[in-house]
Amino acid sequence: MALDHAILVSLLERPGSGYELARRFERSIGHFWTATHQQIYRVLGRMVTDGLLLVREVEQQGRPDKKEYSVTGPGRAALAVWLHKPIEPESLRHDLAVKIRGAAFDDPAALIAEVERHRQVHRDRLAHYLAGELRDFTGPDAPAPQDAGQELQHVVLRGGIAYERMTIAWLDDVLATLHRLEAAGPGA
Amino acid sequence: MALDHAILVSLLERPGSGYELARRFERSIGHFWTATHQQIYRVLGRMVTDGLLLVREVEQQGRPDKKEYSVTGPGRAALAVWLHKPIEPESLRHDLAVKIRGAAFDDPAALIAEVERHRQVHRDRLAHYLAGELRDFTGPDAPAPQDAGQELQHVVLRGGIAYERMTIAWLDDVLATLHRLEAAGPGA
DNA sequence: TCCTTCTATGCAACTCGTTGCATAGACAAG
DNA sequence: CTTGTCTATGCAACGAGTTGCATAGAAGGA
Predict the structure, then answer these.
(1) Orientation of helix B2-13 relative to helix B18-26, angle to 10°
(2) Chain A contact for B116, CB < 8 A?
(3) Which residues form the Transcription regulator PadR C-terminal domain (chains A, B) (predicted)?
Protein backbone atom coordinates (compact mmCIF):
# COMPACT_ATOMS: atom_id res chain seq x y z
CA MET A 1 0.00 0.00 0.00
CA ALA A 2 2.84 2.33 -0.87
CA LEU A 3 0.69 4.69 -2.92
CA ASP A 4 -0.72 5.96 0.37
CA HIS A 5 2.76 6.83 1.56
CA ALA A 6 3.80 8.40 -1.70
CA ILE A 7 0.72 10.63 -1.44
CA LEU A 8 1.53 11.51 2.17
CA VAL A 9 5.08 12.52 1.23
CA SER A 10 3.91 14.55 -1.75
CA LEU A 11 1.24 16.35 0.28
CA LEU A 12 3.69 17.05 3.11
CA GLU A 13 6.05 18.62 0.60
CA ARG A 14 3.14 20.72 -0.64
CA PRO A 15 -0.64 20.37 -0.14
CA GLY A 16 -2.67 20.07 -3.31
CA SER A 17 -5.66 18.64 -5.15
CA GLY A 18 -6.10 15.20 -6.68
CA TYR A 19 -5.59 16.71 -10.10
CA GLU A 20 -2.32 18.35 -9.02
CA LEU A 21 -1.13 15.10 -7.46
CA ALA A 22 -1.87 13.24 -10.68
CA ARG A 23 0.28 15.73 -12.59
CA ARG A 24 3.11 15.50 -10.06
CA PHE A 25 2.97 11.73 -10.33
CA GLU A 26 3.23 11.80 -14.09
CA ARG A 27 5.88 14.50 -14.20
CA SER A 28 8.51 15.29 -11.59
CA ILE A 29 7.72 12.40 -9.29
CA GLY A 30 7.45 10.14 -12.32
CA HIS A 31 10.96 8.87 -11.78
CA PHE A 32 10.02 7.03 -8.63
CA TRP A 33 6.29 6.39 -8.71
CA THR A 34 3.33 6.38 -11.06
CA ALA A 35 -0.42 6.46 -10.56
CA THR A 36 -3.49 7.39 -12.57
CA HIS A 37 -5.94 10.03 -11.45
CA GLN A 38 -8.67 7.46 -10.80
CA GLN A 39 -6.46 5.60 -8.39
CA ILE A 40 -5.39 8.81 -6.69
CA TYR A 41 -8.97 10.05 -6.21
CA ARG A 42 -10.05 6.74 -4.73
CA VAL A 43 -7.13 6.58 -2.31
CA LEU A 44 -7.58 10.24 -1.33
CA GLY A 45 -11.20 9.52 -0.41
CA ARG A 46 -10.23 6.56 1.70
CA MET A 47 -7.45 8.45 3.44
CA VAL A 48 -9.84 11.25 4.38
CA THR A 49 -12.28 8.67 5.78
CA ASP A 50 -9.41 7.18 7.78
CA GLY A 51 -8.46 10.59 9.16
CA LEU A 52 -5.04 10.72 7.51
CA LEU A 53 -5.91 13.73 5.33
CA LEU A 54 -7.98 16.91 5.55
CA VAL A 55 -9.98 18.30 2.61
CA ARG A 56 -10.63 21.97 2.01
CA GLU A 57 -12.85 23.30 -0.78
CA VAL A 58 -10.99 26.02 -2.66
CA GLU A 59 -12.84 28.35 -5.02
CA GLN A 60 -10.84 29.37 -8.04
CA GLN A 61 -11.16 32.03 -10.72
CA GLY A 62 -10.97 31.08 -14.37
CA ARG A 63 -11.17 27.37 -13.58
CA PRO A 64 -13.34 24.87 -11.70
CA ASP A 65 -13.19 24.73 -7.91
CA LYS A 66 -10.89 22.17 -6.39
CA LYS A 67 -10.43 20.22 -3.18
CA GLU A 68 -7.12 20.80 -1.50
CA TYR A 69 -5.78 17.96 0.60
CA SER A 70 -3.33 18.25 3.49
CA VAL A 71 -1.85 15.78 5.95
CA THR A 72 -3.20 15.50 9.50
CA GLY A 73 -1.32 14.51 12.65
CA PRO A 74 -2.42 10.88 12.36
CA GLY A 75 -1.40 10.96 8.69
CA ARG A 76 2.08 12.10 9.62
CA ALA A 77 2.22 9.43 12.32
CA ALA A 78 1.18 6.75 9.84
CA LEU A 79 4.01 7.82 7.54
CA ALA A 80 6.50 7.70 10.43
CA VAL A 81 5.44 4.15 11.27
CA TRP A 82 6.01 3.09 7.67
CA LEU A 83 9.37 4.87 7.51
CA HIS A 84 10.63 2.82 10.46
CA LYS A 85 9.46 -0.48 9.03
CA PRO A 86 11.88 -2.28 6.70
CA ILE A 87 10.68 -2.81 3.13
CA GLU A 88 11.57 -5.41 0.55
CA PRO A 89 14.14 -4.31 -2.02
CA GLU A 90 12.22 -3.63 -5.19
CA SER A 91 12.12 -6.03 -8.09
CA LEU A 92 11.80 -4.96 -11.67
CA ARG A 93 9.20 -5.77 -14.27
CA HIS A 94 10.74 -4.88 -17.54
CA ASP A 95 8.56 -5.69 -20.55
CA LEU A 96 11.24 -4.72 -23.03
CA ALA A 97 13.63 -7.29 -21.56
CA VAL A 98 10.96 -9.95 -22.07
CA LYS A 99 10.63 -8.83 -25.67
CA ILE A 100 14.37 -8.98 -26.20
CA ARG A 101 14.61 -12.55 -24.99
CA GLY A 102 11.45 -13.38 -26.90
CA ALA A 103 12.96 -12.04 -30.13
CA ALA A 104 15.02 -15.22 -30.30
CA PHE A 105 11.79 -16.96 -31.38
CA ASP A 106 10.91 -14.33 -33.97
CA ASP A 107 12.97 -11.83 -35.96
CA PRO A 108 15.51 -10.01 -33.76
CA ALA A 109 16.01 -7.27 -36.35
CA ALA A 110 12.33 -6.39 -36.17
CA LEU A 111 12.94 -5.14 -32.63
CA ILE A 112 15.46 -2.48 -33.63
CA ALA A 113 12.91 0.27 -34.26
CA GLU A 114 11.15 -0.48 -31.00
CA VAL A 115 14.39 -0.32 -29.00
CA GLU A 116 15.34 2.94 -30.71
CA ARG A 117 11.98 4.40 -29.77
CA HIS A 118 12.51 3.45 -26.13
CA ARG A 119 15.99 4.93 -26.17
CA GLN A 120 14.56 8.22 -27.40
CA VAL A 121 12.01 8.26 -24.58
CA HIS A 122 14.79 7.74 -22.05
CA ARG A 123 16.88 10.46 -23.67
CA ASP A 124 13.94 12.83 -23.32
CA ARG A 125 13.40 11.88 -19.70
CA LEU A 126 17.08 12.41 -18.97
CA ALA A 127 16.97 15.87 -20.56
CA HIS A 128 13.85 16.66 -18.50
CA TYR A 129 15.51 15.58 -15.26
CA LEU A 130 18.72 17.46 -16.03
CA ALA A 131 16.74 20.62 -16.74
CA GLY A 132 14.92 20.18 -13.42
CA GLU A 133 18.19 19.68 -11.60
CA LEU A 134 19.65 22.83 -13.10
CA ARG A 135 16.52 24.80 -12.24
CA ASP A 136 16.03 23.56 -8.70
CA PHE A 137 19.39 22.46 -7.37
CA THR A 138 22.59 23.25 -9.24
CA GLY A 139 21.84 26.28 -11.43
CA PRO A 140 22.64 29.92 -10.64
CA ASP A 141 18.99 30.66 -9.86
CA ALA A 142 18.53 27.63 -7.62
CA PRO A 143 17.84 28.38 -3.95
CA ALA A 144 20.76 27.80 -1.61
CA PRO A 145 20.56 24.40 0.06
CA GLN A 146 18.88 25.04 3.34
CA ASP A 147 16.84 22.10 4.51
CA ALA A 148 17.06 18.33 4.53
CA GLY A 149 14.04 18.02 2.25
CA GLN A 150 15.84 19.76 -0.58
CA GLU A 151 18.93 17.60 -0.25
CA LEU A 152 16.81 14.46 -0.17
CA GLN A 153 14.78 15.49 -3.20
CA HIS A 154 18.04 16.14 -5.01
CA VAL A 155 19.55 12.76 -4.22
CA VAL A 156 16.37 11.03 -5.44
CA LEU A 157 16.55 13.07 -8.65
CA ARG A 158 20.20 12.04 -9.05
CA GLY A 159 18.93 8.47 -8.83
CA GLY A 160 16.52 9.12 -11.67
CA ILE A 161 19.30 10.66 -13.73
CA ALA A 162 21.61 7.71 -13.07
CA TYR A 163 18.83 5.32 -14.01
CA GLU A 164 18.17 7.02 -17.34
CA ARG A 165 21.89 7.20 -18.19
CA MET A 166 22.33 3.52 -17.37
CA THR A 167 19.27 2.59 -19.41
CA ILE A 168 20.39 4.56 -22.46
CA ALA A 169 23.82 2.91 -22.34
CA TRP A 170 22.21 -0.51 -22.03
CA LEU A 171 19.85 0.14 -24.95
CA ASP A 172 22.91 1.08 -27.03
CA ASP A 173 24.34 -2.30 -26.07
CA VAL A 174 21.07 -3.98 -27.06
CA LEU A 175 21.04 -2.20 -30.42
CA ALA A 176 24.64 -3.20 -31.13
CA THR A 177 23.72 -6.81 -30.34
CA LEU A 178 20.65 -6.72 -32.59
CA HIS A 179 22.67 -5.25 -35.46
CA ARG A 180 25.33 -7.92 -34.99
CA LEU A 181 22.68 -10.65 -35.18
CA GLU A 182 21.17 -9.04 -38.25
CA ALA A 183 24.56 -8.95 -39.99
CA ALA A 184 25.22 -12.59 -39.03
CA GLY A 185 22.04 -13.49 -40.90
CA PRO A 186 18.74 -14.92 -39.77
CA GLY A 187 19.93 -18.49 -40.12
CA ALA A 188 22.94 -18.18 -37.81
CA MET B 1 -0.93 -8.94 -19.40
CA ALA B 2 2.79 -9.31 -19.85
CA LEU B 3 3.11 -12.23 -17.45
CA ASP B 4 1.60 -14.39 -20.19
CA HIS B 5 4.36 -13.36 -22.54
CA ALA B 6 7.11 -13.81 -19.98
CA ILE B 7 5.82 -17.35 -19.42
CA LEU B 8 5.72 -18.02 -23.17
CA VAL B 9 9.33 -16.89 -23.56
CA SER B 10 10.50 -18.90 -20.59
CA LEU B 11 8.71 -22.06 -21.78
CA LEU B 12 10.04 -21.62 -25.30
CA GLU B 13 13.55 -21.42 -23.89
CA ARG B 14 12.81 -24.61 -21.97
CA PRO B 15 9.53 -26.37 -21.13
CA GLY B 16 8.85 -26.85 -17.42
CA SER B 17 6.37 -27.09 -14.59
CA GLY B 18 4.69 -24.29 -12.68
CA TYR B 19 7.03 -24.91 -9.80
CA GLU B 20 10.08 -24.65 -12.03
CA LEU B 21 8.76 -21.47 -13.60
CA ALA B 22 8.26 -19.96 -10.16
CA ARG B 23 11.88 -20.70 -9.32
CA ARG B 24 13.12 -19.28 -12.61
CA PHE B 25 11.11 -16.16 -11.95
CA GLU B 26 12.58 -15.68 -8.50
CA ARG B 27 16.13 -16.51 -9.55
CA SER B 28 17.74 -16.06 -12.94
CA ILE B 29 14.82 -14.29 -14.55
CA GLY B 30 14.40 -12.23 -11.39
CA HIS B 31 16.27 -9.38 -12.98
CA PHE B 32 13.51 -8.66 -15.44
CA TRP B 33 10.29 -10.08 -14.05
CA THR B 34 8.76 -11.40 -10.84
CA ALA B 35 5.71 -13.53 -10.08
CA THR B 36 4.48 -15.72 -7.27
CA HIS B 37 3.63 -19.38 -7.75
CA GLN B 38 -0.10 -18.75 -7.20
CA GLN B 39 -0.14 -16.25 -10.01
CA ILE B 40 1.82 -18.55 -12.29
CA TYR B 41 -0.46 -21.55 -11.67
CA ARG B 42 -3.55 -19.48 -12.36
CA VAL B 43 -2.18 -18.05 -15.60
CA LEU B 44 -0.90 -21.47 -16.73
CA GLY B 45 -4.39 -22.88 -16.30
CA ARG B 46 -5.93 -20.08 -18.32
CA MET B 47 -3.33 -20.38 -21.07
CA VAL B 48 -4.00 -24.11 -21.42
CA THR B 49 -7.73 -23.38 -21.67
CA ASP B 50 -6.97 -20.80 -24.35
CA GLY B 51 -4.88 -23.32 -26.27
CA LEU B 52 -1.59 -21.44 -25.89
CA LEU B 53 0.07 -24.20 -23.85
CA LEU B 54 0.09 -27.99 -23.67
CA VAL B 55 0.25 -29.93 -20.39
CA ARG B 56 1.91 -33.29 -19.95
CA GLU B 57 1.84 -35.32 -16.71
CA VAL B 58 5.36 -36.40 -15.81
CA GLU B 59 5.98 -39.10 -13.21
CA GLN B 60 9.07 -38.55 -11.16
CA GLN B 61 11.14 -40.66 -8.81
CA GLY B 62 11.97 -39.38 -5.36
CA ARG B 63 9.58 -36.46 -5.68
CA PRO B 64 5.92 -35.75 -6.48
CA ASP B 65 4.70 -35.93 -10.04
CA LYS B 66 4.59 -32.71 -12.00
CA LYS B 67 2.86 -31.16 -14.98
CA GLU B 68 5.18 -30.06 -17.72
CA TYR B 69 4.01 -27.20 -19.89
CA SER B 70 5.12 -26.41 -23.42
CA VAL B 71 4.13 -23.80 -25.98
CA THR B 72 1.75 -24.65 -28.83
CA GLY B 73 1.65 -23.12 -32.30
CA PRO B 74 -1.06 -20.64 -31.33
CA GLY B 75 0.98 -19.78 -28.23
CA ARG B 76 3.98 -18.99 -30.39
CA ALA B 77 1.77 -16.95 -32.70
CA ALA B 78 0.35 -14.99 -29.77
CA LEU B 79 3.89 -14.16 -28.67
CA ALA B 80 4.80 -13.03 -32.19
CA VAL B 81 1.80 -10.69 -32.27
CA TRP B 82 2.87 -9.12 -28.98
CA LEU B 83 6.49 -8.81 -30.14
CA HIS B 84 5.40 -6.72 -33.11
CA LYS B 85 3.19 -4.43 -31.05
CA PRO B 86 4.89 -1.39 -29.51
CA ILE B 87 4.86 -1.24 -25.71
CA GLU B 88 4.99 1.69 -23.31
CA PRO B 89 8.44 2.41 -21.86
CA GLU B 90 8.36 1.14 -18.33
CA SER B 91 7.90 3.40 -15.33
CA LEU B 92 9.42 2.69 -11.97
CA ARG B 93 7.83 2.22 -8.58
CA HIS B 94 10.59 2.62 -6.11
CA ASP B 95 9.46 2.42 -2.49
CA LEU B 96 12.88 3.28 -1.16
CA ALA B 97 12.87 6.58 -3.05
CA VAL B 98 9.54 7.43 -1.42
CA LYS B 99 11.09 6.67 1.95
CA ILE B 100 14.10 8.84 1.24
CA ARG B 101 11.97 11.86 0.37
CA GLY B 102 9.70 11.05 3.31
CA ALA B 103 12.66 11.05 5.68
CA ALA B 104 12.63 14.85 5.49
CA PHE B 105 9.55 14.68 7.75
CA ASP B 106 11.13 12.27 10.20
CA ASP B 107 14.73 11.45 11.14
CA PRO B 108 16.94 11.05 8.05
CA ALA B 109 19.65 9.30 10.05
CA ALA B 110 17.19 6.56 11.00
CA LEU B 111 17.18 5.49 7.36
CA ILE B 112 20.90 4.71 7.20
CA ALA B 113 20.58 1.11 8.37
CA GLU B 114 17.72 0.46 5.94
CA VAL B 115 19.66 1.88 2.99
CA GLU B 116 22.73 -0.17 3.95
CA ARG B 117 20.59 -3.30 4.03
CA HIS B 118 19.28 -2.57 0.53
CA ARG B 119 22.80 -1.94 -0.73
CA GLN B 120 23.85 -5.34 0.58
CA VAL B 121 20.96 -7.02 -1.24
CA HIS B 122 22.00 -5.34 -4.48
CA ARG B 123 25.64 -6.35 -3.92
CA ASP B 124 24.49 -9.95 -3.50
CA ARG B 125 22.37 -9.80 -6.64
CA LEU B 126 25.27 -8.33 -8.59
CA ALA B 127 27.56 -11.14 -7.40
CA HIS B 128 24.91 -13.67 -8.38
CA TYR B 129 24.53 -12.19 -11.87
CA LEU B 130 28.29 -11.97 -12.39
CA ALA B 131 28.68 -15.62 -11.38
CA GLY B 132 25.94 -16.55 -13.84
CA GLU B 133 27.61 -14.56 -16.60
CA LEU B 134 30.92 -16.29 -15.99
CA ARG B 135 29.26 -19.70 -15.94
CA ASP B 136 27.04 -19.27 -18.99
CA PHE B 137 28.66 -16.68 -21.24
CA THR B 138 32.17 -15.42 -20.61
CA GLY B 139 33.92 -18.17 -18.61
CA PRO B 140 36.24 -20.87 -20.00
CA ASP B 141 33.54 -23.53 -19.57
CA ALA B 142 30.82 -21.47 -21.22
CA PRO B 143 29.47 -22.84 -24.49
CA ALA B 144 30.63 -21.02 -27.60
CA PRO B 145 28.11 -18.42 -28.76
CA GLN B 146 26.07 -20.21 -31.37
CA ASP B 147 22.51 -18.96 -31.49
CA ALA B 148 20.67 -15.68 -31.21
CA GLY B 149 18.89 -16.79 -28.04
CA GLN B 150 22.15 -17.01 -26.15
CA GLU B 151 23.30 -13.57 -27.28
CA LEU B 152 19.94 -12.09 -26.34
CA GLN B 153 19.91 -13.74 -22.92
CA HIS B 154 23.40 -12.35 -22.38
CA VAL B 155 22.50 -8.78 -23.28
CA VAL B 156 19.52 -8.91 -20.91
CA LEU B 157 21.80 -10.21 -18.17
CA ARG B 158 24.22 -7.35 -18.89
CA GLY B 159 21.26 -5.04 -18.32
CA GLY B 160 20.66 -6.60 -14.93
CA ILE B 161 24.34 -6.19 -14.07
CA ALA B 162 24.33 -2.55 -15.16
CA TYR B 163 21.18 -1.94 -13.12
CA GLU B 164 22.68 -3.40 -9.95
CA ARG B 165 25.95 -1.48 -10.39
CA MET B 166 24.06 1.77 -10.93
CA THR B 167 21.84 1.13 -7.92
CA ILE B 168 24.79 0.37 -5.63
CA ALA B 169 26.52 3.57 -6.70
CA TRP B 170 23.33 5.54 -6.12
CA LEU B 171 22.81 4.02 -2.67
CA ASP B 172 26.37 5.08 -1.82
CA ASP B 173 25.36 8.58 -2.87
CA VAL B 174 22.24 8.34 -0.67
CA LEU B 175 24.29 7.16 2.30
CA ALA B 176 26.78 10.01 1.89
CA THR B 177 23.88 12.46 1.81
CA LEU B 178 22.28 10.97 4.92
CA HIS B 179 25.60 11.09 6.80
CA ARG B 180 26.08 14.71 5.76
CA LEU B 181 22.62 15.61 7.07
CA GLU B 182 23.32 13.76 10.31
CA ALA B 183 26.58 15.68 10.80
CA ALA B 184 24.85 18.98 10.06
CA GLY B 185 22.50 18.28 12.94
CA PRO B 186 18.80 17.53 13.16
CA GLY B 187 17.92 21.21 13.41
CA ALA B 188 19.63 22.29 10.20
C1' DT C 1 -22.39 29.14 -31.94
C1' DC C 2 -20.00 25.15 -31.82
C1' DC C 3 -15.75 22.65 -31.07
C1' DT C 4 -11.70 21.80 -28.72
C1' DT C 5 -8.60 22.07 -24.82
C1' DC C 6 -7.48 22.42 -20.06
C1' DT C 7 -8.84 22.04 -15.35
C1' DA C 8 -11.24 19.17 -12.08
C1' DT C 9 -13.72 15.09 -10.09
C1' DG C 10 -15.71 10.73 -10.00
C1' DC C 11 -18.28 5.81 -10.91
C1' DA C 12 -18.35 1.01 -12.61
C1' DA C 13 -16.35 -2.96 -14.27
C1' DC C 14 -12.64 -5.53 -14.85
C1' DT C 15 -8.02 -7.59 -14.53
C1' DC C 16 -3.74 -8.12 -12.05
C1' DG C 17 -1.30 -9.34 -8.05
C1' DT C 18 -0.79 -10.59 -3.05
C1' DT C 19 -1.72 -13.10 1.21
C1' DG C 20 -3.27 -16.79 3.80
C1' DC C 21 -4.38 -21.26 3.84
C1' DA C 22 -4.51 -26.29 2.49
C1' DT C 23 -2.89 -30.61 0.63
C1' DA C 24 0.44 -34.18 -0.33
C1' DG C 25 4.57 -37.15 -1.57
C1' DA C 26 9.49 -38.01 -0.52
C1' DC C 27 13.49 -37.69 2.21
C1' DA C 28 16.57 -36.68 6.17
C1' DA C 29 17.49 -35.79 11.02
C1' DG C 30 16.48 -36.44 15.66
C1' DC D 1 7.83 -41.82 14.52
C1' DT D 2 7.62 -37.13 14.58
C1' DT D 3 9.35 -32.98 12.84
C1' DG D 4 11.20 -30.26 9.33
C1' DT D 5 12.45 -29.34 4.53
C1' DC D 6 11.95 -29.58 -0.37
C1' DT D 7 9.11 -30.55 -4.27
C1' DA D 8 4.61 -29.79 -6.24
C1' DT D 9 -0.19 -27.91 -6.89
C1' DG D 10 -4.08 -25.32 -5.87
C1' DC D 11 -8.38 -22.42 -3.70
C1' DA D 12 -10.45 -18.30 -1.66
C1' DA D 13 -10.47 -13.69 -0.39
C1' DC D 14 -8.80 -9.44 -0.76
C1' DG D 15 -6.43 -5.35 -2.33
C1' DA D 16 -4.04 -2.86 -6.09
C1' DG D 17 -4.22 -1.07 -10.57
C1' DT D 18 -6.29 -0.27 -15.32
C1' DT D 19 -9.79 1.02 -18.71
C1' DG D 20 -13.83 3.05 -20.23
C1' DC D 21 -17.10 6.23 -19.43
C1' DA D 22 -19.39 10.49 -17.58
C1' DT D 23 -19.83 15.18 -15.88
C1' DA D 24 -18.84 20.06 -15.73
C1' DG D 25 -16.84 24.95 -15.61
C1' DA D 26 -13.96 28.19 -18.18
C1' DA D 27 -11.18 29.78 -22.12
C1' DG D 28 -10.05 30.34 -26.93
C1' DG D 29 -10.54 29.71 -31.74
C1' DA D 30 -13.29 28.51 -36.12
Answers:
(1) 100
(2) no
(3) 92-178
